[in-house]
Amino acid sequence: MKYIKSIFKAYDIRGIVETQLTPDVVENIGSVLGTMAVEARVSGLVVGYDGRLSSPILAKRLISGILAAGCPVYNVGEVTTPMVYFANYELGSLSGVMITGSHNPPEYNGLKMVLAGQTLSGDDIQKIYQRLEKQQYITGKTADYKEIDITEAYINKITATVKLKRKIQVVIDCGNGVAGKIAPKLYRRMGAKVLGLYCEVDGNFPNHHPDPSQPENLKDLQEALANNNAEIGFAFDGDGDRLGVVTKDGNIIYPDRQMMLFSADVLEKNPKAKIIYDVKSSRLLAQWIRDNGGEPIMCKTGHSFIKKKIKETGALLAGEMSGHLFFNDIWSGADDGVYAGARMLEILSRVENPSQLLNALPNSITTPEINIQVVEGEQHQIIEKLQKTAKFPDSLEVITLDGLRVEYKDGFGLIRASNTTPVLVLRFESTSQAGIDRIKAQFREIIKPYVKQINF
Fold first, then answer.
1. Tens digits of per-residue pLDDT, 194-242?
2. Angle at the Cα of 273 (from 235 to 428), degrees rounded to 5?
3. CATH fold of the domain at 5-150
4. Would you please indicate which residues are annotated as catalytic (active-site) residues?
5. CATH class held by domain 365-447
6. What's the CATH class of domain 255-337+351-359?
7. 18: closest CA among 98, 106, 132, 107?
8. What is the pLDDT of residues 147-181, one digit of tens each?
């Protein structure tokens, strides 16, 4: 069987179902993961899947492969990715696989994997590819199989510790992703009044793409907030591990500003705590963390990189600009957009005007994430060349932790390679529009030799 190496990415496996990540490929991946689980002596693998049209059949074939390797399976069904992480802890296996395409187009799907408490990424994922190529996996065995509903356990765990001070009204846009099965139920159980948009799970995504990092996907949420009594709006991605926030007056509170609110709350209870943020985040966030008595730590973008850094540092909170938020104080440290929304509601229920609180958070002039399409794999080659050759005469510091983050007196510019799709990712921030324009111009010059069409 032919395996396409490019689908084995930095922190997950992801590709087009019909041509790359076929059911046959997924079954063999299941046998590799089952073999690795047996070798690691874990009690079994939790398996869950999102609402994509291809997810049920891929889950069935994945489970078949895992069982054939002699590894038990706990099937938790159609759930959010964070609910698989939750089940890993609840069931004691600390190991699981989620079938999800996250926010990618409908024809994509993928696998996010945890083994013995370690999120598989980088070299571990490349080892899966190598074992597939060499057929280094067990088949022909059998193992125990259980179907388990973890919804009530998940809701009860959250409502036991996250409490609203008053009844708050929220609009949630689930984008027809799998978060629609859990978010309305959880927030109502907490005591919130919930208006749901597109909460019916539909892998065709008929209304808009489930990606809250893109402003165009928040327009329906903004309109709903303008036309009803809700105080705040939340949006989720396709597998429920990212949170988008919109105020009553339609302002988008990007995740680095959400992190300011969460940081202040965590640090109030845990002085001097370490807090992690990714390279795409505002430079105002690090200063905010320091001002609130915490220790800021910059990290590479990517949920597996951040989870690894949480383990290394013991950080109590982490977040990245894409909307992944990781609570490690009274939660498990996994990224969970629905849980983050619960924590946000808890904080906002303490004030009479949630939008006023959010809008008052420090801000500067920023761009949303800018994506430039390139050929598959080329994004990494371009970044490697730029790290060696690019010059920024008026910069204060050039950080090469993840691409190039160039710090200036009045802002920063970032270019990095996406680990999930063939794009270059850029973001800019400054204290003035003139500063944004100047920084953008410098970045246009450095990428001009490598990119045919520049869209910023």
1. 999 999 999 999 999 999 988 999 999 999 999 999 999 999 999 999 9
2. 50
3. Alpha-D-Glucose-1,6-Bisphosphate; Chain A, domain 3 (3.40.120)
4. 102
5. alpha beta
6. alpha beta
7. 107
8. 999 999 999 999 999 999 999 999 999 999 999 99
